[in-house]
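Structure ticket #2291
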Amino acid sequence: TEAGVRASESKFVIELRPGTLYDAVAVARLFRDTVRSVNRKDYSDAHIDAWAPYEVDLDHWRQAIENSHFLGAVSGGMVVGFCNLDGKDYVDQLYVHKDLLRKRIATRLLEEVEREAKRRGAQRLWTQSSITAKKFFERQGFVTLQSQRVEHNGQIFDNYAMEKRIAVIRR
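Resolution: structure written out below.
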């Protein structure tokens, strides 16, 4: 619960671990609640409703967990953030609990995903960043390749194709 999150902040410790199918409900709720709260400043109500509907699609989240390199950030047994790497170089999603922003959770998740991308031989990471997350990705070394307009659930979203060049680990 949110009260549990606030109570544990003074001793805030997170563990990064692979996502499991048991995380699907928590991940879906975290995504929905974060988008509906944090991204509201940059997107309309119609965008938010299309992006993060109240009704959760658990199959979508189970597939993401099973079919990508999916990391969860956990604190006190609660999922407080997640990130997934599709293929060897695409950062598909990166979200942190709406009440726990600016605690380096997203940075730690992205650093671990970058390590995995290097292990997979990637020479870059790339993502499609929301308006809201663009500054975060820039601080992590990503540059904008292009502004784009993409359709999702009947809405046109402005976002950014971004990349970060990374050094490959030589074996």
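Closing remark: The helical segments are 2-8, 24-38, 45-51, 58-67, 105-119, 134-139.
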